[in-house]
Amino acid sequence: MSSWRSTILENFVPNVAKLTLVSDPDCLLTEEKLAMGLRDRGFDLIEFNDPMEFRYAYESKYRSIWDWGEYTDLVVVLRLQNAELESLPYDLLQAGRKLSFNLGDLFPNLSYPVIEKLDRGLLDLLYEAQRKSPPDRMGDNTTKDFILRHVFGVAPELISTEVELLRFLLRLHYGNLAIPSMLADRLVDVFESSGSFKGWSLSQIIPDAEQFFVFIQERWPIFLENLNQANQVKEDSEAYGLKFQGPVILPFDHQDIRVYIDNLFVEGKLTPVDLPGMDIAKDSWVLSGISAAKSDGEGLRLSRLFEIVDAADLSMDSRYTDWIAFAMKWAEISALIHTTSNARYKKRYSETGQKLNGLFADWLEAHYASLTNLPPSTPAMLHHVPRHLARSIEDQTSKKVVLVVIDGLSLDQWVTVRNIIQKQNSDLVLRESATFAWIPTLTSVSRQAIFSGKPPIYFPSSINSTNSEEKLWKQFWQGHDVSKLDIVYKRSLGDGDAEATMDSLINPAQTKVVGLVIDKVDKIMHGMQLGAAGMHNQIDQWCRGEYLISLLNYLSNHNYEVWITSDHGNVESIGKGRPTEGSIAESRGERVRIYPTPELRSQVSSRFPFAREWPPSGLPDDYFPLVATGNDAFVNEGDSIVGHGGVAIEEVIVPLIKVERRTQ
Q1: Sheet of strand 73-78: strand arrangement
Q2: Average pLDDT value for residue range 615-639
Q3: The pLDDT of residue 83
Q4: What would the pLDDT profile of 370-407 be if each residue is shown by its tens digit?
Q5: InterPro entries under this entry (predicted)?
Q6: 3 state DSSP class of 423
Q7: Could you tell me which residues are beta bridge partners of residue 98?
């Protein structure tokens, strides 16, 4: 077979059985591209997890259709470990054919406990390596070495110099490669046993990107001083108070290293430093790592960021992780455009954004539905976030978690927030990632998905309101064996004394799960008349008021694991006309209109070519959105607004941040 997906897809032929039951403990069917392949063949997927939720979707969307004589190809996926298909309800077992897939069948000669830890997006490389070089039966360590060599492109026994090690670590962490902890431990063991890297903090900087970037950051000014002082730098790391062990001077100027370092500064993963009196040529490669006071730092960053964005090579075949990685770079550009006076780049920014958002809207129509059922181990969508937190609590019963939802915060506005938090408390580690909001990107849709841990199809009666969030939040956690007394929810936060509010709300000795909604950014947005630049300015001022840092410090000091996300972003848009539709629209947003039938929606959409009839995947049966694309809005011609509801990158891909306290 040409790929591992082909071996599975050959079992799914349309119109053979209206119901197929699949045991899938390794989450293979819900892998993004395989799920899309099934949908292309006409198959719908439903996960059997919560019996009540499943029964609601099954009876309303499928059984009722079958009873009327219509045909659908439905796949019910059971992916709990050690769960047998025979545990499914009797009526399903009687009606459906049965299949089973697992990693052990796909990779029979590799160690199952090792390969099950791999991100499913890496299986293509592993399957191709197995096809080209069929391995003999392997144990754990030989499987780890096989994966490291063929998937991550590293043969640890061949890395013996500082340049080789640094180049590998930069490729690993800059590329956001998801290396499992057992593979990281294997690398540490091999490197330490070789004796080539004595004194390096390998157990910290190999598995942890944030720790590695701190390791690089604290050595960067020493490298610059060495350039300026003709090799007068001391080799004793204690003299510089370095947190991580290893060489004092790293070979940043090596041709294989400096391209990564340049990009890390440009993309905001490293922070430029200010060294007064340093004489650097205007065309020197190190300028990206020197603060703007010594050069046209902002213009230099923008120029380099546009080069990186232009080389992104996104397409209709891109994975959702490719779009997330891109969105985080695009956010850095957007933040600079809206917070600095670089007028010469604004036209390029606008033109590039329009082109990318057109591609993004096309990609979403084809791929979005396949994201819904992805496993929550790495949350691809907002409703995966509480399920991800629940798994971590199950693994560590003493853990306490807080989910802070900053209503309406876009990814580029997070960049502004992040920069201030880092100055206010350098001991907080911000582990940055992003995830997909629910479409339409409305608060009542996407925020309820967060607090319920469910797609909107499961809360049809409250989809136009946020008043059920507390009930949904508590229901979710009680379903994961957390006592109602240990669960807290609070909204309408963002002003006043954060510590006093928390003291009155939670008991750190008892409260285990906390859900908080900060609506300050959303209030700023809906009153904004100064566009995206005004948004950043107001958010900057709010952050400097220290409500958010006070909240994070309080929660961190009381040993909570803190996560920050947003229900949707926002985008500056220009009006292209307001529909005159009387009362046929159930919701009349600036970037989305909601209709009770597809026919009513079509009557309006024909007059607004910038809008798309969004497919109702995961939405209630009588909920049909007409969503805006690009930077257009359903407001009076020429009016400028900052709004949400549509399918722009800035609205759909939102921050997902884990906040930790630095321990070293």
Answers
A1: 43-47, 73-78, 19-23, 97-100
A2: 92
A3: 63
A4: 999 888 889 999 999 999 999 988 878 889 999 999 99
A5: Alkaline_phosphatase_core_sf
A6: helix
A7: 21
| Rounded-to-integer distance, Cα 101 and Cα 110, Å | 16
Residues in the chain: 664
Q: Enter the DSSP assignment of 454.
A: S
Tokens of 107: 């990779």
Q: Which of 544, 493, 542, 545 is nearest to 514 (CA)?
A: 493
| Residue 653, φ and ψ in degrees, nearest 5 | -95, 115
The rounded distance, in Å, linking the Cα atoms of 194 and 198 is: 9
Which is nearest to 425 in space by CA: 541, 268, 549?
A: 549
Quote the distance between the C-alpha of residue 455 and its chain's center: 17
Q: Which two tokens stand for residue 637?
A: 């011609």
Residues 73 and 42 sit within 8 Å (Cβ to Cβ): yes
- Residue 627's DSSP bridge partners are 592, 612
33 is written with which tokens? 């591209």
Closest CA to 119 of 74, 190, 175, 77: 175
User: How many CA atoms lie within 13 Å of 27's alpha carbon, on the beta-carbon side?
Assistant: 21
Which tens digit of pLDDT belongs to each residue from 261-274? 988 998 888 988 88
Q: Where are the domains of the chain?
A: 4-101, 367-570, 573-649
> For the residues of 94-125, what is the DSSP string, one character each?
HH-EEEE--HHHHSTTS-HHHHTTS-GGGHHH
Strand partners, 642: 572
Q: What is the model's pLDDT at position 535?
A: 93
- Phi, psi values for residue 403, rounded to 5°: -110, 115
Could you give the CA distance from residue 175 to residue 370 in angstroms, rounded to a whole number?
24
Query: Cα–Cα distance between 30 and 373 in angstroms, integer?
Result: 6
CA 467 to chain centre: 27
367-570 falls under which CATH superfamily? Answer: Alkaline Phosphatase, subunit A (3.40.720.10)
Q: Does the domain spanning 4-101 belong to CATH 3.30.70? A: no
